[in-house]
Amino acid sequence: MFALAIHGGAGTIARASLSPDAEREYHAALETALNTGYDLLAQGAAALDAVEAAVRSLEDCPLFNAGRGAVFTHDGHHEMDAALMSGHNRLAGAVTGVRQVQNPIRAARLVMEKTEHVLLGYPGADELAREYGLPLQPAEYFFTQHRYNQLQDALKAGKMQLDHAADPNWKKGTVGAVARDQHGHLAAATSTGGMTNKRYSRIGDTPLIGAGTWADERCAISCTGNGEYFIRAVAAYDVACLIEYKGLTLEEACRVVVQDKLAPVGGEGGLIAIDAAGNVTLPFNSEGMYRGCRREGESAWVAIYKE
Ligand code: ASP
Question: Residue by residue, what is the 3-state secondary structure of the chain?
Fold first, then answer.
């Protein structure tokens, strides 16, 4: 059983505030990403390739807060974070604070495969991408008017904002994917612009292995939400620990982390998870989460609001 799940961020996503056209756009973008990853898995590709491809597709779509649609920092720049992890061999790569690379998830993979490091940041990470010929883009490529407006509002309010918390009309978020391939291997990938009005050089949970992204031989996890809470909860790794040490099922472990641990302290958001048997769960404690799943032999399923 091979399978893939994706998310496009969690937050305040009220049904009333999303027009049918906008809803269709999101569904289409999520389906495209799902099918991109699924087709690779169906051809026998590694889970790592599938999650990278799905995340790239979402990074290229301006609807989501990653790559092209990344949010602005307090000083009006983009600083993007991304990470991926391969479960069976525990290899991981991540970048933080990149400003130029078109697809931060590809830079994260370079860190994993071409360096001895796990996490590379700032100009050094953009430089690595340049060295290996990844496409770089000028600042204008990452500019979107609604993200700019969102920053102005956040500046006025004087606080850092989760992408979709700023205004009901801006419901786009961090992206991620988890997969199980035909060989039974698991992988996870996450990519984000972070939080609107974040202080420059702020690092969220996304590129921190164990906080926003994790994969081992039991499960693969990609998180989205208020990063500082996910870091303090070591959220993604906690799911793996609850499975390993407490014998919980994937679904129980994810519920404990998202509903019992994160929600009570204000850790708004959710995660997507897959286990070695191909079980998938997509829990969140926010109003909505862009999400989808496609399992072997089935068609793509996507959703936005609570069911
Ligand atoms: N977790 C991301 C961060 O804190 C934001 C998000 O998921 O929307 O950088």
Answer: CCEEEEEEEEECCCHHHCCHHHHHHHHHHHHHHHHHHHHHHHCCCCHHHHHHHHHHHHHCCCCCCCHHHCCCECCCCCCEEEEEEECCCCEEEEEEEECCECCHHHHHHHHHHHCCCCEEEHHHHHHHHHHCCCCECCHHHHCCHHHHHHHHHHHHHCCCECHHHCCCCCCCCCEEEEEECCCCCEEEEEEECCCECECCCCCCCCCCECCCEEECCCEEEEEEECHHHHHHHCHHHHHHHHHHHHCCCHHHHHHHHHHHHHHHHCCCEEEEEEECCCCEECCECCCEEEEEEEECCCCCEEEEECC
